[in-house]
Specification:
The chain is of the alpha+beta class and 208 residues long. The protein is built from nine helices and four strands; from the N terminus they run βαβαββααααααα.
């Protein structure tokens, strides 16, 4: 398999973590979003959304959208289980994953921030304030949704989404002391080599 990925992309981080937890072999193909690699004609022909991640299976099948990719991975390689099979447990876990992937991430996407700067004249400081606002608002909701107690020994899709978004939170100066459940999940997930290896700083295209 080939994973088209950008090192700082939290959506790519999610899929890397899932693939690593499943112990699946894959080749990472860097896509430099800042340089605009995603807009190349060859890439757009494979992924009309012009984003990352994109997973190309051994038979050439192309999968896009991180949560859809993770659902495919979890259904195809069942251990360890990342998405509960029991309907109520699944609904609760997916609600948390969606709170991160659908409420926080889209408004902080590189394309959105680019539009804020180019069309509306947002300064770098204003763009950072924007991102902090939506991370804090989203994490406040997620924190309330999380159960008390220790996180699952094997992270689920919710834990993966939380941990990857926590990377962005720290990057933009959000204090996670206000979110002890989230911080506990992040700490646990990063103690697992499969997820630590998926961290942006450990990618072949990582740079300062």
């Amino acid at each position: 398999m080939k994973l088209y990925s950008y090192w700082r992309s939290t959506t790519s981080y999610r899929v890397r973590a899932a693939l690593n937890l499943k112990r699946l072999a894959y080749e990472t193909i860097p896509v430099d979003l800042v340089a605009g690699d995603q807009n190349a004609q060859e890439y757009a022909a494979l992924n009309a959304g012009k984003g990352v991640p994109m997973l190309v299976l051994d038979d050439g099948t192309v999968l896009t959208q991180s949560l859809a990719i993770i659902e495919y991975i979890d259904a195809t390689w069942t251990q360890p289980q990342l998405i509960p099979r029991e309907p109520m447990a699944r609904a609760r876990v997916m609600a948390i994953a969606h709170a991160v992937a659908l409420d926080i991430h889209p408004v902080n996407n590189l394309r959105v921030i680019g539009q804020l700067k180019s069309r509306f004249g947002a300064t770098p400081d204003q763009a950072t304030d924007w991102m902090r606002h939506w991370i804090i608002e989203g994490f406040t909701a997620v924190e309330a949704m999380l159960p008390d107690g220790a996180p699952p020994e094997t992270p689920d899709i919710a834990g993966i989404c939380i941990t990857t978004q926590a990377y962005n939170a720290r990057r933009w100066g959000v204090d996670l002391h206000a979110f002890p459940k989230i911080a506990r999940i992040e700490q646990h997930c990063l103690s697992i080599p499969a997820i630590a290896d998926a961290h942006p700083d450990n990618q072949p295209d990582a740079r300062v």
